[in-house]
Amino acid sequence: MDEAQFQDLVDRHGEDLRLWPAAVRADAEALLRQSDSARAILETAAALRTAFSAAPAARAPAGLKARIIALAEDDEADDKPAPSPRLGAGS
Questions:
Q1: How many helices (H) and strands (E) does the chain have?
Q2: How far apart are CA 15 and CA 12, in angstroms?
Q3: DSSP character at residue 15
Q4: Where do the domains of the chain lie?
Q5: Number of neighbouring beta carbons within 10 Å of residue 88
Q6: pTM of the model
Q7: Which residues make Cβ contacts (< 8 Å) with residue 15, sequence separation at least 6?
């Protein structure tokens, strides 16, 4: 088993090797003993699972979306070129 195969198995089965099919578990454990890259793959997967299982971030304050849109619209209005002055008929 190489690191690419290991990454694929982590993606499909998760970071807990006890939940992997027995047919690939021994090879995965052997790779983990010898490969820093494989250990990093497993650590990253565990960190991601922890981050995704954490409590969700607090909701945005009421009206934030409307304030952001208003600011964006103001910026767009500021970016528009000013109308060019008209030249008089006698010029």
A1: 4, 0
A2: 9
A3: S
A4: 3-53
A5: 6
A6: 0.59
A7: 42, 45, 46, 49
Render pLDDT for 16-75 as a digit per residue (tens, 0 to 9).
999 999 999 999 999 999 999 999 999 999 999 998 888 777 787 888 888 999 998 887
SS3 string, 28-59, reads HHHHHHHCHHHHHHHHHHHHHHHHHHCCCCCC
Residue 38 contacts residue 10 (beta carbons within 8 Å) = no
Q: Which of 45, 40, 36 is nearest to 14 (CA)?
A: 45
Assigned token pair, 73 = 């619209």
**Quick one: tokens of 46?**
């565990």
| Rounded (5°) CA angle 48-5-39 | 50
Token duo for residue 78? 């500021």
Q: Which of 33, 39, 52, 36 is nearest to 10 (CA)?
A: 39
